[in-house]
Amino acid sequence: MDHRFREKEIKMIAIVLRDEKVTYRCVMCCEGRNVTSPADYTIHSDHFTFEYGTATITCQIDSSCSTPTHVALTARDVPAVFPYSFTVCISVMYDYKNVLGLVQAMEMFRLLGAQRVVIYKTNCDSDTQKVLDYYVKRGFVEIIPWTIKKHINVSSGWKKALSPGQLHYYGQIPALNDCVYRYMYQSRYVALHDMDELILPLKVKNWMDLLPELDAKADYEQQKWKNVQGTNILKCTERIPNSFDNYKIIVSPRLVLQATVHGLVESVKPRPYTVRVKNSIARMYHMKFSYPTNTDLIRDDHLNDYAEDLIPAVSKVLQDCGFIKD
Fold this sequence. Notes:
This protein is an alpha+beta fold. It has helices at residues 99-112, 126-137, 172-182, 207-215, 307-320; strands at 9-17, 24-30, 33-43, 52-60, 70-75, 84-93, 116-121, 141-145, 187-193, 197-201, 238-239, 249-251, 256-260, 263-267, 282-286, 298-299.
């Protein structure tokens, strides 16, 4: 905040590309509401002909917002190019120790076309943290600390009568919505998943090849994985018939106003917000290793179609993290 002139101003020091013409806007938070105003910027003359230089960006204080608590700087236009094509939002990681399942999930997401995975982490064991650090270091995973348990009594389930608490399932829904908004202008699409769920195309191998369709053999036991903590998703070869809530979504985040565990609550477009994809095109696979007695199961080993690429990718990560030897 600059008090030297007749009117107070907010000044930001930035590094900018000198030949880029950008229209900035200031978004100021005042008593819980956003006030937007144009921003002026001046590039300092001592740039020594380098492509980038120092700039002073000035936000004028609006009369209705004399004491903003937070300020953001944004460009007027929505970017035409996004850093990521597909981002996976995982909510939430709590008491997690399935090392093998984590590595398999990350490598499956990569094979399906994800360039970023966002994990809202409450807690995990040291081996899991080692794997998370591996992926964070390589820029594939972003960890959002999800410490909501310090502030509110969260439920461990979705039925309050069975899992007492003040908020549904570890705060899963606010985490999902945060991820959608956080990556709204960073990712062309976001996939809202749990760690043990995969949206698998049936006729093609990845999500990028799946989208045009929407618009119009190996050792699966892997003995060297046997001492790695966790469960092997390649051994999931049976599923239950589809039910109403047994689905997840891949969505353009710029269409979302409110997201929930299974779909959207509100969108910028009128209903229907989403399109139900035929089972002949793609299916959501929820990896479970036990089912209630007398459950009708259908054999389905489609996940093993990815084994040839998945197995060496998972083995490399486990080896790099010190869980297995070459």
